[in-house]
Amino acid sequence: GKGRPKNPTELNFELSDGGKLWVRRPLLKGGAPVGDAAWSCLEVGNLDEKKLGGKGKERPPLGDATVEVLVNRQSVLGNPFNLGKKVKLESQRDPVIKAYSEFLEVVMAGADQVDIFALARRHGLSPVENCGKDWRGTN
Predict the structure, then answer these.
(1) 0.85 surpassed by pTM
(2) Which residue blocks in the chain are alpha helix, DSSP H?
(3) Is 68 helix (H, G, I), strand (E, B) or coil?
């Protein structure tokens, strides 16, 4: 089975000066530019880039990031919503993405707390089934 996921410090991330983002010096080789590659200052990488080839998946192109920001369920930018706890319902993908978009807007506006249960309900999702367990205690 899978072991527990590594926490941010085990992945060599440190809290930023503001204490909200997990950051580290660049360790990933790949990073796909977001938007127009010629003008983009943002890349998206994959912490599991070394494993992608073995799974028959493409690695991101070579990147040139100067800092890496952790975006997963252990970070403030991670998605607290999922497609379901026991059964993953593809029909919930659109509401989950919309709830996450609204969540990100609130976070980026500087909110210290976000009522993810209310966001879930507003988008027709169940707090028990669609709010990640890592996030339920922070609500």
Answers:
(1) no
(2) 49-52, 93-108, 116-122, 127-130, 133-136
(3) strand
Q: Judge whether 60 and 66 are in contact, CB under 8 Å.
A: no
pLDDT tens digits for range 114-127: 999 999 999 999 99
Residues in the chain: 139
Query: Which residues of 20-130 form beta strands (DSSP E)?
Result: 22-24, 32-33, 43-44, 68-69
Q: Cα(120)–Cα(42) distance, rounded to whole angstroms?
A: 28
Compute the distance between CA of residue 128 and CA of residue 139 in angstroms, rounded to an integer: 12
8-state DSSP, 4: P
In the sheet that 14-15 helps form, which strands lie side by side, from edge to edge? 14-15, 22-24, 68-69
Nearest residue to 134 (alpha-carbon basis) of 82, 94, 92, 80? 80
AA letter at 104: L
Beta-bridge partners for 44: 32
